[in-house]
TrEMBL record:
PANTHER family in the record: PROTEIN RSEC
Stated name of the protein: SoxR reducing system RseC family protein
Record's keyword annotation contains Cell division: no
InterPro entries: RseC, SigmaE_reg_RseC_MucC
Residue spans crossing the bilayer: 80-100, 106-127
Superkingdom to which the source organism belongs: Bacteria
Organism: Shewanella corallii
Pfam families named among the record's database cross-references: RseC_MucC (PF04246)
Sorted UniProt keywords: Membrane, Transmembrane, Transmembrane helix
């Protein structure tokens, strides 16, 4: 289960709570982030906030902190669709272009390149669509209540 801290920003109905999650770059969590060029670039850009509703079993107040969970299988399936499917399309499109070019007596290498690029692009597009659908169906759940958000108010 992948976990993320979220802040409650509203509750429209008793069964759903609106939360805000700060999307973080993986570069900020590495021990070498101070010595890495990619980590420096990641720090230069501000964090993105994402808002969505999650099912709630009780009422929460604005500012409450929650720990949300999302099954890792959703992320792994999406990554496989976006990365492995285009690779499969590239290889099978190239092989198909090579075979067709050889049988027709055409330039097999040019057809293999064109077939590979076409197959890779088509499979990337299909994988991206399927991954979006899969992620839209995935619903984070509230794992625990973390308390109130501490603010810097002076007395």
């Amino acid at each position: 289960m992948m976990e993320q801290k979220a802040r409650v920003i509203g509750q429209d109905s008793p069964d759903w709570v609106l939360v805000e999650v700060e999307m973080q770059s993986a570069c900020n969590h590495c021990d070498n982030s101070d010595n890495c060029g990619t980590g420096s670039v990641a720090k230069a850009f501000s964090a993105k906030l994402q808002q969505f509703a999650v099912p709630a079993d009780r009422r929460y107040e604005v500012g409450d902190l929650l720990k949300l969970g999302l099954p890792e299988s959703v992320v792994l399936k999406s990554a496989a669709l976006v990365y492995l499917l285009p690779l499969f399309g590239l290889l099978s499109g190239g092989l198909l272009g090579q075979v067709i070019g050889g049988q027709l007596g055409l330039n097999a290498n040019a057809l293999a390149m064109a077939g590979g690029l076409t197959g890779g692009f088509v499979c990337w597009w299909l994988g991206k669509r399927q991954a979006r659908s899969l992620e839209a169906q995935a619903q984070p759940i509230i794992l625990s209540y973390l308390g109130k958000q501490v603010t810097g108010q002076s007395a």
